[in-house]
C-alpha cells in the first residue's frame, strides 16, 4: 500500500541549521505538487535552546500539523529523549551520528551527515545528506529534491559551478545509505495535478500580502512576537510614493498614528500581539467613536500579560470585541488557515472602509509561524472596497445621517472635527441626551451592513454542530471528516467573521441542540459569546500553548455529542 | 460649512482665560498662512488635546479648518500619522501643559528625532484646568492645588530647556496676552520646515492666575517675569538659547531654529529612492513554489 | 393629607451659588431626621453654563432622584424655559425676581431673594430667603432650617455675631412672603425616628472612607472626571506615616505603581474613569498574572473614548471583566447606592487580599455626584481581610500550591519573582505546557472562594425576576415596589458582586423564565453576561447620560413581563 | 530558596552577550551593599524590563533577592510604587534601551522631578535584542536593522545628555566588559540618596556587535569609543558633565551626582509633618448630619 500523507519532525538545538532544511524539504515537495505544512515551536532565547519543527506532506491539502510523527530526525541527546515517544509504532528515528549515539534497532537509524557530506567536497551539504536519507525513508522520489536543488542554486554566476553537483551527490549518499540498510516507510502516492499555481508562505506573509492587495497605504508598528515579521515585511515593501511605513515608539503611538493617517484618507493598519493590543484599548475606542476606518492585527500569543510570547493561543477574542470602556462592539475577523490570512485581511480592510471604523484581524502564533502552500490568489478577482468620500461642497455634515455617510478628507470640502467626545453632526462636543442616543445608535446601526458575510455550513440538518474558529479550523475539520467516516451525525459551521456573526448563520445556530466549539483558551470565549447570543454552545478548551491534535478532538466531540 | 454656528456646543472658557488670546493669535496665523501660500483653509488641520485648551478646535471662529479632538495626551501621534501620510497638509497641534508634558510626554522625543513637520502650540497654565485645578508638571514645587493641599512635592518641569535638549528644530516662547507677537511666532512655527513648538504662557484665571506675575505691575513694583528675548540673540545658536533659558525667567520670542535637519517626509523620500517600486504580482511571485 | 416625599429642582447658571443652597437644604433636612438625596448635572465648562440640581426629601430612605418636580426654583430665563415642563401638575415654580420675570399665575411665584435679604443687612443671605420660601412651600418646619443655620454659623468667634440672626431673619422673610401669598404644597409628615446616626456625603466620599476603613496604605492616581475627588480626598487624608499618596503622571503609571506597592505588602488602590481605565488594561493583566492584590475604582461616565465626562452610564461592565488580552476574568464589585459605595470598597479590598489579584470597583457618575444621608457605618463591626503573608523560611515557593498561598513580602523570607510571563512555582519564566495549564487553573480556581457573596432575593418564587445592577438599583427597587402594589407577580434579585456572581443566586436565576435587567447602556451588558452563563435575561436599556426614571421602568417591566 | 537551581527556566543569553558582564557587576554590587550595610539580601528587589536584558532577574546566581518581571517599559512605575511605600528596601531597576527609552520613556522625567531613590541599570545595545534585531532609540541614524532595511530614518537618541538635562541626581556611564568598574558604579548608584542611573554599553553579539568599536583595537588601529572620564572631572558640576557628554564619545564613570535635592521619601515625610494624623472616626464625624 502506498502512503498519502506523512509527518517528519526535526529536533535539535536552535542554530544547528536544520530548520531551514525542514522548510526546504517542505518547499521541495510543494514544487513537486504535494501539499505541505510546517509547524515549529521556538524557545524564547535568541540563539540555541531546544527547538523543533515538523513538516507534514500530503497528496491532499494539509489541514493540521499531524498528530503523530512518522519520522523523527534528531540532532542531539536531549531532542531524542524529549521526542522519541511521539513516533508512531511503525515510524523511524533518524539521527545524526556525528552528534550523538543511540542504540541501533530496526526503528532507529544513524547517519553521519557531515562526514558523508565531506566526501562530496562540501561539508555544508550535511543537510542534503539528511534530506536524501529522508526522501528514501518516506518514499519521496529523489528527483523532487534534485529539482529543488537545481532551482535553488542553479544560478551559477551567484553560487558557482560546484554547489549543485555536490548537493545532488550528497542527496544520493543519504538516500543510498538508507536504501542499503533497508529502511522504508512506504512509497508516497504521486502528487495530484493542481489547477492553480501555488505559493509557499506563512500566515504573517499572507496577511502582509493581503494588506498590500487591499491597498494599505500607511503602516506603523512596534516590534512584538509573533507580529514583528509583519512590521519587517512592511518596512521592506511599503516604501513607495504616497505610502508610509515606520517603526514607532510604542503601540500607543502606533494606534493613534494610524487613526491620524486614516483621518487623512489613507488605508491604515498596524499589527501587534496581546500586550500591545491591550495598550491600544483607548485608541480603539477613539476610532470607534470618531468613526475612523483602521485595521488592527492581533497575532495572538499565549497567556495574559507578557504571557507566552512564543506559544499559540486563542484567548484574545472577548477583549478584542470590547477592548475599551463604554458601549463598543468591534468587528472581528479571524482567519483559520494561511490562505484565509490573505483573504481575511482584505475583508478586514473592506469592513473598515465600508462601516467606517476599527476592525480587528485576529490571527494566531500558530498561523504566523506556519509555512504552507496555498493557491496563488487571483488578484484580478478580488473585491476591494474603497472609502466613500464626500464630494459635496455645501453644508455637508459628517455625522448627520443615521447610516453610512461619506467621509470628508482634509484638503477637500466638508471640514469637521473627528471627536472622541460625544458630538453633534459637525463633530463638535455636546452633552445633549438626544445626541448621545442618536450617535450611539448611528454607531451600532453601521454594524448591520456587516452581517451578510460568508460562512461554511455542512450537514446543516444535524442537531449537533461543530464550530471551531480561527486556527482550530484545520484540526477541527480533520476531526469532522473522521467523525463522518464513523457515521456520527454531526454538522459543520465555520466563519471567519466572528463579530458580528453572519445573521443567517446565527439564526441557524440558535435552533440547534448543541454547538460544539473547539478553542484554544480556558474561558471558552467563543462559546460564551454564542451563548450570550442565544446559542446553546459548549467549548472544548485547551490551554497548553500548542494547537489541537485531531484525535483529541475526535474523542472529545464524540463524548460531548453522545452525552446529549 | 463656511462659518461656524453651533448652538449645541456647550463649552466656554472662563472670563479672562489666557486661551482667548491664543485663539486670536492662532486664527490670525492660519489666516496669514492661507493668504501667503494661497492655499485653502481646508488644507489646515488642528489637532487638539483634552483640556480647556483643547476646546480651541471647536471655538475657532470664521472659516473652518479641519479638526481632530481625540484622547488626552495623544495629539502628537495623531499628527505624526496625518502629516507623514499627507505632507501636503498644514498640521497644527494645540494642547495644555498636562496633556503634552504629563500623560503625553513620551511622544515628544520621537517627533524631535524624526523632525516631524508639524507646529505645536502649548497653552501652559501650570495647572489642570478642565479637571478643576490639580497640579501639572509645570506647577512649581510647593504649589498648593486641590491635589497638592500641602504643597507639590515634585520639582517644576522646565519645558523650554527640555525642548532644546531634545534638539527640536524650532522652539519659541510666547505670552497669551501679546496676541500680535504670539501670532507671529505661530506663523513662523507653521512655515518652519520641521518640528516646531510655540510654548505659550496662558494663565488660568480660575485656578492659577499668573497674569500679574508674568506681565508685572509697575504700580505694585512687580517686575514682569516674562520678557522679550534680546534682539542680539542668534536663534541658530543652540548653546546661546540654552543659556537664555537658564538665566532668564520666561524669555519671549524664538529661542532656537535649525533648518539643517531633514524632515521626516524628506527622510522617507530618501528611502523610496533606495527601494525598488513594488507591485503585488512580483511580491506574490517571490513566494512561488 | 400630608406629604411624605417631595422634589425640589434648582436651575440656573453655574457660579450663581444656588448649588450650595440646594445641598444645604438637603443637609438641613437630614439633620431634622428626614432622608435626602441630591442629583446634579453639570456642564463641561468650568464656570457658568446651565446647571441644575435636584433635591428629594422624604420621610423614608430615598431610592432615586424622583421622576417629577414638586417645586422648581429658577434663576434665569433659560432655566425656566428648559425645566418648566417637568413640574408636576400641582407643583410650583419659584423664581428669583431679581433676575428674571415670569407671567405670574397660581403656579408661579416670584420673590426678589437678594432685595429682601438686603433688608436684613446682609445681601448674601439671598439663599436664606429662598430656603425660607421653599420651606413654607413644601411644608417643612422653619425650625429645621433655623437649627441648620445655628449649627453652621454658630461659631461666633469665626463668623461673628451677626450672621445667625441675619440668616434667620432672611429665612422668615422668605417664608412669610410665601405664606402671605397663599402658596403651599402640603405639610410634610414629621420625620420618623432613626436608630442610627446618619452621615451625609456623596459616593466618592463613601468610597474614600471605605478604602480608609479597609486599611488602604497606598494611593496614586491621575485626575479624571468623575473620579478626581477620590484623588483629592486621598491627597488630603492619606498623608501619614507608613502610607503614601501622590498624583502621578498618567493612568499607566498609576496602575503599575499600585502593583509595585502591593507587591511590597501595602494595600493599594487607584481610581479612574473610562479613558483612564482603558489605559490600565495591560497593567490589570499583569496584576492578574503575577497575582498581586489591588483595587481599581472605575467611576463610569458616559460613552466610549473621551465620551461624556459629566454624564452617567453603566457601560464599562464587559470591559472591566475582560479588560486585557488572554484568559482573564476580573472580579467586579458594583455598588448601587452611596451606602454601598462604602461597603463595596471594603469588600473589594477583602476580595483582592483574599484571592490575591486585581478587583474592579465599578461605580458611576450618578453615585459619585449624588449627596445622600446614610447610616453612619459601625467601624467595629466591619470585617477586614488582611493578606496571608508567608512566614516560612525554608524553600517556600510562592506559586507552588493549587490554591491561595501565602505571599512573601520583600524584606522577609521567601524571595520570588513576580512575573507577567508564564512562570513556575518560584516565578521564573517557563514555556512548558504543563506549567501553563497548572498556572492558568490556579489563577481561575482562586475565584471559587469569591462565590459565596451576599445578595438580595425577594419574591423568589416568581418566574420573572427584576435584577438591576449598580446605580440602577434605586429606581429599580422603587419600580419593584410600585409593581408589587399593582400585584404584578415579579421577584427581585440584586447583588453588588457581578463577577463572579454568587453561586447560589446564579443557580436560582438559571431556573427562571425571565430575568429583566434595567441598565444604563446600549448593549445590555449585564444581561448578555447572564445569558452567557445560562440565564434567560433581557435588558431594559437607556443611554441618555441620565439615570432611569421610575415610571419608565414600571412601564417597561410591565410590558416585558406581560409579553411572556 | 537560598541558591537558585531551576531546571524549568528556559532563557539563556547568546555567547558573548554584554549582559553577562553586567550580571557579574550587579551581583558584586549587591553583595557589597549587603555586606557594608549588614542588611539581608532579602531587602533587595530587582525590577526587570522585558528584553534580553530583563532576564537578568532570573539569571542572577547565588543567594536570591526579590524580583519583579513585569511589562515592557513599566519598570519605573513599579519601582516608584514599591520604593515610595517601602523606603526600607533597596530597589534596583534593570532594563534595555528599548524598554527604558522607547516605550517606557514617559516615566523617566517624573522620577527625576521627584528624585525617587532607586538605582537604574540600563543595558544599552542600541538594538531590540529579544525581538530579534530591530532598531532602538539609541541606534544611530542610517543603521540597517531588520526594521530599517534601508537605514534608520531618525536621529540617534543620546541618553546621557537626556538624563543630565532632566537633572537626574546621579548619572554614570559604564561598559559591560569592565566588570569591576561597572560594579563600583552600580554600588555608588545604589547608595546614592536619590534617583540614579548607570547607563551601560552592553553589546548584542547577535544583532549589533559593537565590542570592537567600543573597546577599540590597537591591532586594527581602531581608537576605543568608550574612554574613562578624566580624573579632574568634578561630578557635582552639571555644566561640566554636559560638556563631557557633548565632546567625548562614550565617557565612562560618574558624570554627575547631586545630593542636595531631597528624595521623594523625604518630600513625603515633610507633608506628614504638615498634616494632622487622621483616624476613621474623626473622618466619619466630619460627614455627620
Ligand atoms: C486618559 C485620560 N486621563 C485623564 C483625563 C482627564 N483630563 C481631562 S483634561 C485633563 C488635564 C488638563 O490639563 P491641561 O492639559 O493642562 O489642559 P488645561 O485644561 O489646563 O488647558 C485631564 C487630566 C482624560 N480625559 N483622559
Ligand atoms: C507592550 C509590549 N510591546 C512589545 C513587546 C515586545 N518586546 C519584548 S522585548 C522588546 C524590546 C527589547 O529591546 P530592549 O529593551 O532594548 O532589550 P534587549 O532585548 O535589547 O536587551 C519588545 C519590543 C512587549 N513585550 N510588550
Ligand atoms: S479653568 Fe482655567 S484654563 Fe479652564 S477655561 Fe477657566 S480659566 Fe481657562
Ligand atoms: S540577542 Fe543580543 S542582547 Fe539578546 S542575548 Fe543575544 S547577544 Fe544578548
Ligand atoms: Mg493646563
Ligand atoms: Mg536593547
In total, how many beta strands of chain B?
A: 8
Give the mean pLDDT of chain B. 95
Rg over CA atoms of chain A: 26 Å
Unreliable segments of 5+ consecutive residues of chain B: none
Shape of chain A: globular
Describe the structure.
The complex is a heterotetramer, with two copies of chain A (564 residues) and two copies of chain B (289 residues). Chain A has 564 residues and is of the alpha/beta class. Chain A has four domains: 5-181, Pyruvate-ferredoxin oxidoreductase, PFOR, domain III (Pyruvate-ferredoxin Oxidoreductase, domain 3, 3-Layer(aba) Sandwich), CATH 3.40.920; 200-381, Thiamin diphosphate (ThDP)-binding fold, Pyr/PP domains (Rossmann fold, 3-Layer(aba) Sandwich); 388-449, no CATH class; 456-562, 3-Layer(aba) Sandwich (Rossmann fold). Chain A is 37% helix and 20% strand. Chain A has a seven-stranded mixed sheet, sandwiched between helices. In chain A, strands 2-3-1-4-5-6 form a six-stranded mixed sheet, with helices on both faces. In chain A, strand 2 (35-41) and strand 3 (50-58) form a beta hairpin. Chain A is globular. The mean pLDDT of chain A is 95. With 289 residues, chain B is α/β, with parallel strands linked by helices. Chain B has a single domain (19-285), classed as Thiamin diphosphate (ThDP)-binding fold, Pyr/PP domains (Rossmann fold), CATH 3.40.50. Chain B has an eight-stranded mixed sheet, sandwiched between helices. In chain B, helix 6 (159-165) runs antiparallel to helix 9. Chain B is globular. Chain B starts with 18 loop residues before the first helix and ends with a helix. The mean pLDDT of chain B is 95. Chains in contact: A-B, A-C, A-D, B-C, B-D, C-D. The B-D interface holds B 102-103, 105-106, 109-110, 112-115, 137, 150-151, 153-157, 161-162, 165-167, 261, 264, 267-268, 270-271, 274-275 and D 102-103, 105-106, 109-110, 112-115, 137, 150-151, 153-157, 161-162, 165-167, 261, 264, 267-268, 270-271, 274-275. Strand 15 (417-419) of chain A pairs parallel with strand 2 of chain B. The complex binds thiamine diphosphate (2 copies), iron/sulfur cluster (SF4) (2 copies) and magnesium ion (2 copies). One magnesium ion binds next to helix 4 of chain B.
